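Late entry, written up from scratch paper. The run itself happened at the end of the previous shift, but nothing got recorded in the book at the time, so transcribing now.
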Amino acid sequence: SVAAWDKERAALEKDLAGLARFKGTLGRDAKSMRAAFDEIGAIDKRLSRLAIYASLKSDEDVRVAADQARNQAGGALYSKLGETIAWIKPEILSIGAAKVERFIAAEPGLKKNAFFLRDVVRSAAHTLGGEAEDVLALSSNALGQPGNVYSILANGELPFPSVRLSDGRMFTLDQAAYTLHRQAANRADRKAVFDAFWGAFKSYEGTFGANLQAAMLANVFNAKARKFKTALEASLFSDNMPEPVVRTLIAEVNRALPTFHRYLKLRARMLKVKDLAYYDVYAPLTSIKTMYTLEASKRITLAALEPFGPEYTGILKDGFSRRWMHVYPQRGKKSGAYMSGGAYDVHPYLLLNHNGDYASLSTFAHEWGHAVHTVLTKRSQPYETSNYATFTAETASITNEVLLFEYMLRQAQTHNEKLAFLNEALDQMRGSYFRQTMFAEFLVKAHALAEKGEPLTGERMTQIYCDLMRRYHGADKGVMKVDPAYCVEWAFMPPFYGGFCVY
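Output as recorded:
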């Protein structure tokens, strides 16, 4: 409850101040190091739970000022923790790797901290002195604000347009409604939806551009401060992911674009259009339009994921029976979908915007993949090692999408049903492989300009994104028409505020 949150926040404020007493004690002996890490870990776990509550509550309706203020307060407290313990990494490095290893061997209670300690040693070249680490910790809350600004503007305050479809129905095109109606069977309706929705974002192109530039400049600042060559290298370092992984992915996807263009030509043929347009990319290829209720999504997901065995499906059934999900779209609610697993002693939470279409069903299976992964992680790992890299997390979720598709294809009763599900699989490749890599290439190019000190206005970002859209979708080869009016799509993407995680 809010009252419990306020009480815990006050207690954490007090307890945070007490962590200063551990400064200078880590190298004394193994027991002293364990005592420090035990208390820091306990406070960090409590703070994570506090912050998750505030974040989830604020995402229910980004227009509620009290919830936004609480979310900001939670973020500020996390920043304060970083300031309070900014001395830790320099102190560990001053102790030396050999002594750290002796402490780990001598004190079983440090086993849960061993990964962190060794990772600090790995990070030596990018760890600054005590005073500089204090300054970076002080800056973290301010530098992280562009993501909050985006959420409030894109989900709450942006004046979404209305559109009347060919059947006479009128809709307000918020993000959830756009996601649903861009799939309209009527081509004129699809164009009307795209024109209205992207027209609204185009009106705020400058604002979105300034905000995303601020996020990118923050990434560049942190990278330079920590002596990384690029913001990309800095972003990948925490997962120990080599930079060539992303650059090779981009190169290989560009090499594979003829295959993607072949799919787009097939889509044009099945839609019976000679001038395939960007607003046709989500169009249904068959007349089948099955809708999936929440209960149907649960039932189908359980059946599709049965190959994982009873332990896995048991976790799903338990989660389905509890209130772990915020399921349906509503005005002001954060767009998209996510699983939040940071409240270690509670359970995962899922935000969905379930429209009842196949994409919603697939997203349902995807996010529950993250949720089960989190449950299993917490069963096996203490808090200190329960976090996992996005690279690993997406394996747990995208595998579910593949199993779901294979199940649906097996269940198909008619030729048209099989075609519909085959298209869903091809479209998943379009979205998860080609589109996400296009996003990654956009971020690499935009950050490179920021690193050179070049201005990144909204108009400039639209130009960069438009060039990529045209190349990826074969515009110059006559494969697909890309209306420049839709090139403001970059402004719609919340993952762009998460560094380079889209790869």
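Residues 61 and 331 are 7 Å apart (CA to CA).
(Scratch paper discarded after transcription.)
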